Amino acid sequence: MAKHHVVLFFFVYLVLSSIICYMCDAIENGDETDKVYIVYMGSLPKDASYSPTSHHFSMLQQVVYGNDVENRLVQSYKRSFNGFSAILNDQQREKLAGMKGVVSVFPSQEYHLQTTRSWDFLGLPQSIKRGKTVESDLVIGIIDTGIWPESQSFNDKGLGPIPKKWRGLCAGGGNFSCNNKIIGARWYPGSVDARDHFGHGTHVASIVGGRRINGVGYHGLAKGTIRGGVPSSRIAVYKVCNPNCRDDNILAAFDDAIADGVDIINLSLANVNAVEILKDPLAIGSFHAMEKGILTVQGAGNNGPNPSTISSVAPWLFSVAATTIDRQFIDKLILGNGKTFIGKSINIVPSNGTKFPIVVCSAMTCHGNYTSPEKCRCIDKKLVKGKIVLSVDATGGYLAYQHGAIGSIINFTYDRSFITHRPSLDLNSEDFDRVQSYTYSTKYPVAEILKSDVVQDTTAPKVASFSSRGPNPIVPEIMKPDIGAPGVNILAAYSPNGPSSDDAIFNAYEKYIIASGTSMACPHVAGVAAYVKSFHPDWSPAAIKSAIMTTTKPVNGTYNDMLGEFAYGSGNINPQQALHPGLIYDITKQDYMQMLCNFGYNDTKVEQISGEKSSCHKASNRYLVKDINYPALVILVRRPHKRFSGKIHRTVTNVGSPNSTYTATIIPIPKIKIKVVPKLLSFKSLHEKQSFVVIVTGGANSNQTMFSSSLVWSDGTHNVKSPIIIKRLS
Ligand SMILES: *[C@@H]1O[C@H](CO)[C@@H](O)[C@H](O)[C@H]1NC(C)=O
Ligand SMILES: *[C@@H]1O[C@H](CO)[C@@H](O)[C@H](O)[C@H]1NC(C)=O
Ligand SMILES: *[C@@H]1O[C@H](CO)[C@@H](O)[C@H](O)[C@H]1NC(C)=O
Ligand SMILES: *[C@@H]1O[C@H](CO)[C@@H](O)[C@H](O)[C@H]1NC(C)=O
Ligand SMILES: *[C@@H]1O[C@H](CO)[C@@H](O)[C@H](O)[C@H]1NC(C)=O
Ligand SMILES: *[C@@H]1O[C@H](CO)[C@@H](O)[C@H](O)[C@H]1NC(C)=O
Ligand SMILES: *[C@@H]1O[C@H](CO)[C@@H](O)[C@H](O)[C@H]1NC(C)=O
Ligand SMILES: *[C@@H]1O[C@H](CO)[C@@H](O)[C@H](O)[C@H]1NC(C)=O
Ligand SMILES: *[C@@H]1O[C@H](CO)[C@@H](O)[C@H](O)[C@H]1NC(C)=O
Fold this sequence. Notes:
19 helices; eight-stranded mixed beta sheet; about 725 residues; Rossmann fold; single chain; binds 2-acetamido-2-deoxy-beta-D-glucopyranose; 4 domains; Glucose Oxidase, domain 1; 37 strands; seven-stranded parallel beta sheet; alpha/beta
């Protein structure tokens, strides 16, 4: 499969996918024989005399003949874990893969990139109690397209000096300067500085940690106060995308961020396909972050709504689905016959009352030929100029714009609203058909499209159709995604150099913009994780994740309801409750190592990755991958249409009241029996641990592929909720 280039999801990817891919192919005809490969070597040896760079150099010398080594080595990873990236051919790659100390060798891929009403909707109002001193010591690492440092959202008014623990640098290049808000900046090959020319990194950074700014809106829409989840936190920027994100850069950024001393890493990037854990740079980088107590939050990806489209699969990653908020952007279409329809878009052009002629065209009828006006009505200037085109696909609308159309009506119901500087909207298919009938039934069909309005959406939160879905394609016992958070139509800060509308023609200096994607959902969770950490600085990454996952609010359905939790995880984030989970499901580095053993990696590999003596050989059959202490339970049923039973072990730690008794409740499901043993857990002190078993037995004769229930432990004050998913493998 070809690598993908030049795609900023939230602007153009879905709307214009065919056009963008068309361009990708053109870019791809390069020399493909020598590629950048990542040679991953696990933990750094503890031996103080070990020099990673000279080791990497000598390894390369053994496979690359001549004096070419220097040009072949791309980057050395040497601060937080061991490895390097280098330009290799197939033979050289194979030789390196067989060398001592090498865990895996895999090609460096490129990644797609994937206000603030959302924080109020989530129940984190401005007046909320904050652990301010601790919050202002938190450093959030942003691995993305860089940042626009002059944005008002990153002013440092009232912030104290840089936290003492910070070991990073401000090496932003060019005229980039840091302050007490943006305290670190680094950039990697493919860029010339850490400045954001695309807007994505600036947008995510302001969602997670932007300062409070009054009176911000988008061309008069959605006006209010904009702010991040943890406005007092510090930001460290690692620019790996320009605009595509290279694996070898991502690993280098992890290597630096961990050593620099960030608290939370927020990754708005997603791979297109899930890959094996030890060949996934995001999984590798975040494993070493986890070892150092750093939680990595990642967007689930924008490849939904089909099952198993998620690429964020490792259990130590916090994988976030995108949900809607209760604010929706709509606009009105008025036809020549007076009929009015409601469609979706963020359209900032006021109408002057003129009705424009409508013509029908579609890219589907172009038969792949976007250069021939005979084959493609959408590009027929005489036909479309000055008109509104009625197109079943967005690509048709886009082509028509380039040839003088004034607006478009698209047959597309999508949960996000696209930004446009023209009279354009999306209609649902019934309404589209009605407008099409009108267009064919009259000699001079005309229409007027009004400027957008903001309305309340009572169906929120729902999972966005674009949000990538589980089940987990690599480790099916681990539920993915983990959680849902707002990712549709989110207003946040922006790079003035970034494209400013989805129709990609009109460009204006924009300091704030509305965007959608799991990239926008991810920083909401990173913000909440930082918020929880500011109150509980001693909690492990898994404990913070458990607190957030077990205190969610329900999600109100999905685009593909069959997938349930595999669309929204354990529910929608609920920041205030996440501070008081009562019980947590903690997971240590040793637990993760055991899971890797149970997953099938042998002693040698697990020792290399973790830098610790492993005990794979002692792995008892009683504990399997499913028994890792995850705050969600997945039972796989391997033989369909037969009776089955399954057992899962879990251990909870008391972080609520010292003396407390929790009772288990199971949401019943027909034909399946779920038992919890014991049903009662009594705690005498804080940090005390108690274990239990969940036993599931089910009948034959059901062809349903997925059942879901939940387990709630309650002491009357805290309700600790975990999904239980029974998944038949077909
Ligand atoms: C820094 O350079 C960028 C272009 O690279 C420019 O847009 C910006 O205005 C400059 N900022 C300052 C403070 O000079
Ligand atoms: C956090 O990750 C999300 C999704 O992976 C990304 O969109 C966002 O930019 C990141 N935010 C920060 C502050 O790094
Ligand atoms: C309204 O706008 C259109 C296109 O911008 C223009 O052609 C037309 O003359 C305007 N009509 C009025 C009444 O201003
Ligand atoms: C598309 O149409 C143009 C003009 O008719 C023609 O020159 C070209 O070869 C066609 N391309 C394809 C791929 O059919
Ligand atoms: C509009 O889209 C729907 C499905 O999204 C499809 O069923 C319908 O046929 C489309 N309408 C037209 C006129 O193509
Ligand atoms: C769920 O959506 C329905 C409409 O589809 C709405 O009536 C209901 O209030 C929503 N429920 C919640 C809990 O938001
Ligand atoms: C683990 O597997 C690798 C090959 O993948 C092999 O070289 C090594 O000897 C194995 N280690 C053990 C302890 O079996
Ligand atoms: C917990 O209960 C025990 C006896 O039931 C009591 O001795 C102890 O003081 C209680 N501890 C707290 C913190 O309330
Ligand atoms: C299972 O599938 C069969 C046919 O494939 C159907 O007749 C039956 O109703 C289904 N049973 C259930 C419980 O859905």
